[in-house]
Amino acid sequence: MELVRIGNKLVSKEKIYSMIDRIMNLRSKGSSQRETAEILGLDRSFISRLENVGEVRRGGKIALIGFPVKNKEELEEMAQGEGIDFVLLLTEIERRLLLNNRSGVELLNYLMDIIGELRDYDTVIILGSDERIKIVESLLDKEVVSLEIGRSPLTEDVYVEPGVLKSVISSLN
Description:
Blueprint: E1 3-6, E2 9-12, H1 13-28, H2 33-40, H3 44-54, E3 62-66, H4 72-81, E4 86-89, H5 92-100, H6 104-118, E5 123-129, H7 130-139, E6 143-150, H8 162-171
Parallel strand pairs: 3-4, 3-5, 5-6
Antiparallel strand pairs: 1-2
């Protein structure tokens, strides 16, 4: 147990972390701030302040999809840091493997599952060719923010500037 002396008090960091975990668990499961405060014997304003300190992004759920992306790992890391809720980025090799390793029915089912999942998000950011962007926009009935990375057909990975994507994500708050 890690203890910290603050004046004449001895404070347990683990106890603080445990309480924060309990608060976040209750809140993420749908409890209101008031309900959480009552369950844990805290002030509602404490929970509000705690959430404000940790807030990364405000607003609806955001998904990011794109292919073929050269700097996939870099963009995934940045998206995670920005609080993006769902990320599906593919390189050209991954895209080809996805197509070649499934039967027609399996591929259709996979794509329908992805479309179904994307419908749960308030905003979908797509990185893709002009034609792929049009297809996604026509399939989804929500806000689609597109970053065209080239003209169809794209057959090689494209480097996407992380700062541009980060700027788009920031504008959605």
